[in-house]
Design a protein that fits this description.
The complex is a heterodimer of chains A (about 375) and B (about 270). With about 375 residues, chain A is α+β, with helices and mostly antiparallel strands. Chain A folds into two domains: about 230 residues, Rossmann fold (3-Layer(aba) Sandwich); about 130 residues, OB fold (Dihydrolipoamide Acetyltransferase, E2P), CATH 2.40.50.140. Helix content of chain A is about 20%, strand content about 35%. Chain A has a six-stranded mixed sheet, with helices on both faces. Chain A has a five-stranded antiparallel sheet with strand order 13-12-11-14-20, with no helix packed on it. Chain A has a five-stranded antiparallel sheet with strand order 15-19-16-17-18, with no helix packed on it. In chain A, helix 3 packs across helix 4 and helix 3 runs parallel beside helix 5. The longest helix of chain A has 18 residues. Chain B has two domains: about 170 residues, Orthogonal Bundle (MetI-like fold); about 35 residues. In chain B, helix 8 packs antiparallel against helix 9. The longest helix of chain B has about 35 residues. Chain B is globular. Classes of the chains: A alpha+beta (about 375), B mainly alpha (about 270).
């Protein structure tokens, strides 16, 4: 059988395929007819606010939740209704769920022992080595720090070399600094072992740091899927635009398509948006631009960017955050735009009340359908 | 500062400690009397409520009062059997009540407390009428056993339930995720983690059973347990050996409590290292 046909790679890991997966609880639908394909060996992130259905999806893959309908395939293996202990999938739980009565060594060996594996000792030692916990082998879980417990949870799942490793908000309980280093650590381990990782998180930075592919989930459906830069630079919905980073969304009326661009009348200024970044083609639309793509200068001074130039802004708020300065600029039509200026030191900070012009390159803007809630995803981020 | 003011300040600072000591004295005086009386030589006097002179005799001849040791053995037998039966049944019930949704679960939760809340004399007499009206077994050893199992179950359920509801269900899911079947998950994860609760429940059951007088006395028939022996002999004068049994029981429970405490301290020390 060819590689492509059964979705299994030479190293044994398989792709994960969800088709029309649905989970209904008594009062609501947690996951609505989800279709998803995670290629073997990839680091995949399911990103969304709490209650969006991402953890339910993960639990269905692990076998801890039974789907209402749809199917789950690992390669060509249908595991939709398989018991959790009969599917080649392991989970790193949110609160680690380490067995408190067993020491670190036995926690890591648990899966191998259940399957009657050979050379348990050698494999456990190798795995403890990989997560740098060899010296802690005989301690009990509560004696370890949060970061160490996290690594035990990872080792305990990885040692079984599952087709798919599921990570359920694995870094949620760690402080910011430790979380950053664990993100890189997990990424390193994933590259080293080459298994398929599916990572559930509500932290967009975490998802972007770690994953090759991100699926943004909202209210039980996937809003958009793609590489981190694709999602960030060219969001398709207001939810993705607001949930992944921040966006200025300005109301406009679509004039029409002109060659490779779509022209939009935005508060009296006609702006051009590349056709591949325009996700609406008639009527009203939201013109989106990321705050760091907006350039700012005192009124009348030239801005070093050919593009959509807008005058008549007034700085209403300034916050200095070190690497950049974040301005709020009130535009003539009353909307406040966010502008992030990198702290290159070429000009002093602009004081509140300063009259300014703003500008951005048209190729950085995107156009979204106006039927969506402009504030979708802001609260949750 | 005057001497009186100083005294007041000192009393104010140490009031809680003083009160605490008084409470401890209050609690331990009766036990101290029992221990002391176990060394009392009353062979030359009929007054059993006065310390005459020191002797080791009560300790070297604990079974001197006729029938007492036999009755202690009966109490221990009933206690052990009732403990085993109540612990098994109660643990199963606790699992059902914590882990399964069933019709009448909240009612069951409430009903479990009833035997604990019912006055013993009421329960004892109604059990007696039950055993008389429906004589499944003649009054005696086995009716005491049935009665003891009945009132111990409530305590077991409450104790095991508390332990079980504090158990992180993620642990069982993690075990299943790591290829443990349902029964492997139970024996390797759930049971070891609930075991301390089950042991506590068993200890509680044994002391409740060993100690019980009212229900036992009503349903005993010709059988005599240790509390009944003490009650019966109290009219003529309690033999000093009863104090020996009392002291031994006290020492055993102290040993168990200390053992548990040392064990948890050892664990806490291991945690700190």
């Amino acid at each position: 059988m060819s590689q492509a046909a059964n979705g299994q790679r030479a190293d044994g890991s398989r792709s994960l395929r969800l088709s029309k997966l649905t989970k209904e609880f008594a009062a609501f639908t947690a996951v609505k007819s989800l279709d998803l394909e995670v290629p073997a060996g990839s680091f995949f992130a399911l990103l969304g606010p709490s209650g969006c259905g991402k953890t339910t999806t993960l639990r269905m893959v692990a076998g801890l939740e039974t789907p209402t309908s749809g199917s789950i395939h690992l390669g060509d293996l249908d595991v939709t209704y398989e018991k959790p202990y009969r599917r080649p999938v392991n989970t790193v739980f949110q609160n680690y769920a380490l067995f408190p009565h067993l020491d670190i060594y036995e926690n890591v060996a648990f899966g191998l022992r259940r399957r009657g594996g050979k050379e348990v000792d050698r494999q456990v030692r190798e795995m403890l080595d990989l997560v740098e916990l060899t010296t802690q082998a005989r301690k009990k879980p509560p004696q370890l720090s949060g970061g160490q417990q996290q690594r035990v949870a990872l080792a305990r799942a990885l040692i079984n070399r599952p087709d798919v490793l599921l990570l359920d908000e694995p870094l949620g309980a760690l402080d910011l600094k430790l979380r950053r280093s664990m993100q890189l650590e997990i990424k390193r381990i994933q590259t080293e072992v080459g298994l398929t990782f599916v990572h559930v998180t509500h932290d967009q930075e975490e998802a972007m740091t770690m994953a090759d592919t991100i699926a943004v989930m909202n209210a039980g459906v996937i809003e958009q899927m793609g590489s981190p830069d694709e999602l960030y630079e060219n969001p398709r919905t207001t939810f993705v635009a607001n949930f992944l980073g921040q966006s200025n969304l300005i109301a406009g009326t679509i004039v029409g398509r002109d060659g490779d661009v779509v022209k939009v009348d935005m508060e009296g200024t006609v702006v051009s948006i590349p056709a591949e970044r325009a996700h609406a083609d008639a009527g009203k639309g939201w013109v989106g631009i990321r705050p760091e793509k907006v350039l700012i200068a005192p009124a009348g001074e030239p801005i070093n960017a050919p593009g959509n130039h807008m005058t008549g802004g007034v700085v209403t708020d300034v916050s200095f955050v070190g690497v950049s300065t974040q301005y709020l600029v009130r535009m003539p039509w009353g909307q406040e735009l966010m502008v992030f200026e990198q702290n290159t030191g070429h000009r002093a900070m602009l004081a509140p009340g300063t009259h300014v012009d703003v500008s951005w390159r048209p190729e950085f803007a995107f156009l979204l359908d106006a039927s969506q809630d402009v504030n979708a995803g802001i609260e949750e981020a | 500062m005057t001497g009186l003011g100083r005294l007041r300040l000192w009393v104010g600072d140490h009031l809680i400690m003083l009160l605490g000591l008084l409470v401890l004295v209050y609690m331990f005086v009766p036990i101290a009397v029992v221990v002391m009386m176990s060394f009392n030589d009353n062979s030359k006097s009929r007054n059993v409520y006065k310390f005459q002179s020191f002797t080791w005799d009560n300790w070297t001849n604990p079974c001197k009062p006729s029938g007492m040791c036999h009755d202690v053995v009966v109490s221990i037998e009933i206690g052990l059997l009732a403990t085993v039966a109540a612990t098994i049944l109660g643990t199963l019930a606790a699992f059902a009540m914590v882990r399964h949704q069933f019709v009448g679960r909240s009612v069951a939760n409430l009903v479990v407390f009833l035997p604990m809340a019912t006055p013993e004399i009421v329960m004892g007499s109604s059990l007696l009428s039950l055993f008389v009206v429906a004589p499944i077994v003649p009054l005696g050893f086995w009716t005491i056993f049935i009665a003891h199992v009945m009132f111990c179950i409530s305590f077991v359920i409450v104790t095991v339930k508390a332990r079980l509801s504090g158990l992180d269900q993620n642990l069982e899911q993690a075990a299943m995720d790591l290829y443990a079947t349902e029964s492997q998950t139970f024996w390797r994860v759930t049971f070891p983690l609930v075991l301390p609760g089950i042991l506590a429940a068993a200890l509680l059951s044994f002391s409740l059973s060993f100690d019980d007088f009212i229900i036992t006395n009503l349903n005993a028939g010709q059988t005599v347990t240790f509390p009944m022996f003490v009650w019966g002999s109290a009219q003529r004068g309690v033999p000093m050996q009863v104090n020996v049994v009392g002291t031994v029981m006290f020492l055993v429970s102290i040993a168990i409590v200390l053992g548990g405490e040392l064990n948890s301290r050892r664990r806490a020390r291991a945690l700190a290292s």
